[in-house]
Amino acid sequence: MSSKGCSFHITTCFAATVLLLLLSTFSCEAQLTPNYYDYACPQALSTIRAAVRAAIAKERRMAASLIRLHFHDCFVQGCDASLLLDDAPNIVSEKNAFQSFKSLRGFEVIDSVKSAVEEVCPGVVSCADILAVVARDSSEYVGGPTWTVKLGRRDSTTANKDLARANLPNATNDLDALVSIFARQGLSVKDMVALSGAHTIGLARCVSFRDHIYNDTDIDAGFASTRRWRCPSAGGDCNLAPLDLVTPYSFDNNYYKNLLQEKGLLHSDQVLFNGGATDDIVRVYSANQAAFYADFAAAMVKMGDICPLTGAAGEIRKVCRLVN
Ligand code: HEM
Ligand SMILES: *[C@@H]1O[C@H](CO)[C@@H](O)[C@H](O)[C@H]1NC(C)=O
Ligand SMILES: *[C@@H]1O[C@H](CO)[C@@H](O)[C@H](O)[C@H]1NC(C)=O
């Protein structure tokens, strides 16, 4: 009798586990396709591309800022544009998580891309898909790789600032922390090293790299002293420096070459080449830009697949900052 009760219990547990696994797989399964808007909005991709090109032509750093938005979106409840929601009675904006606050930029560009798309096809193209396409177009515009973007994501009606704090990496993370933060999103160590190569463009604030240039030992002495010039040990928190000191506005593999010379700007950059398990990947990318491009493109596609809302889930927002 006790064995019967026990086996019943085990069966129930097993069934419940299978159900949970199925549910979690289904709710996170990517069902995206590159031709999603071919009939509903054939002008979608060209409209987005034109608006992105105009924005980057005006300010080249914008390419960096826009690529970063897709990353900060996807790592928090999937690529669902939750990042774009502003504070509202039922929304605690992810924009205010410390990794993003006073740091993310380009939201006005996303607004203008969205209005351009709404003009040609109202209510059809999601903000989450716009972020994915904008990231690809930005990379391409500044000389980086291009790839085919899968589409069909829908927009969330929720945001989660606590999850943003928990899921987004920060500049003081060590290699182990970076590996586990990316693994939580289904991304491999190689994906993590390749995606970090986005730091071949764009700028960081003194507050993000002060610790590294004053206190770390895995940094070139001349480079550290140059960076201290505009980043004093107290004050000047918002002074900017390029993440790639050589070509901050071109997407290339200089980021990895810098790491070989201990000229990574962030602590979290230099840990990728610091006598650890990722040194070899950094060496490969520093010597072979084509390998970096191929792996970066593949990892961006993989990142874009993180838990999209599809089917009847979520909505197509009219304005990216607001739930309909
Ligand atoms: C590996 C973990 C990562 C950490 C710890 C990290 C951290 C940071 C930090 C601290 C900044 C400077 C922010 C500031 O001072 O305002 C930054 C900038 C940037 N990040 Fe990351 N990041 C990571 C991965 C990524 C990934 C995966 C991407 C995109 C695929 C990315 C794209 C960028 C870009 C392009 C910038 C420059 C933005 C601009 O100039 O506006 N980062 N990141
Ligand atoms: C950054 O992440 C580390 C974990 O690796 C954590 O200990 C630290 O508190 C975080 N930084 C901030 C400012 O919260
Ligand atoms: C360097 O480390 C010391 C001791 O951990 C700390 O008190 C100080 O604030 C750090 N300096 C900077 C500029 O981060």
From TrEMBL:
Keyword hit for Zinc: no
Residues holding substrate: 169
SUPFAM superfamilies linked to this entry: Heme-dependent peroxidases
Catalytic residues in the record: 72
Cell location: Secreted
PROSITE patterns, per database record: PEROXIDASE_1, PEROXIDASE_2, PEROXIDASE_4, PROKAR_LIPOPROTEIN
SS bonds (residue pairs): 41-121, 74-79, 127-320, 206-231
One of the GO BP terms on file: hydrogen peroxide catabolic process
Reaction it catalyzes: 2 a phenolic donor + H2O2 = 2 a phenolic radical donor + 2 H2O
Species name: Ananas comosus (Pineapple)
Residues of the site described as Transition state stabilizer: 68
Protein's job: Removal of H(2)O(2), oxidation of toxic reductants, biosynthesis and degradation of lignin, suberization, auxin catabolism, response to environmental stresses such as wounding, pathogen attack and oxidative stress.
Plant heme peroxidase family profile domain: residues covered: 31-324
Cofactor note text: Binds 1 heme b (iron(II)-protoporphyrin IX) group per subunit. Binds 2 calcium ions per subunit.
Binding site for heme b: 199
Gene: LOC109703714
Short name of any one Pfam family annotated for the protein: peroxidase
Alphabetical keyword list: Calcium, Disulfide bond, Glycoprotein, Heme, Hydrogen peroxide, Iron, Metal-binding, Oxidoreductase, Peroxidase, Pyrrolidone carboxylic acid, Secreted, Signal
Cofactor: heme b; Ca(2+)
Segments passing through the bilayer: none
The protein's Enzyme Commission number: 1.11.1.7
Family listed: Belongs to the peroxidase family. Classical plant (class III) peroxidase subfamily. Belongs to the peroxidase family. Ascorbate peroxidase subfamily.
One GO MF term: lactoperoxidase activity
Residues at which Ca(2+) 1 binds: 73, 76, 78, 80, 82, 94
GO cellular component assignments: extracellular region
Residues binding Ca(2+) 2: 200, 244, 247, 252
Name of this protein: Peroxidase
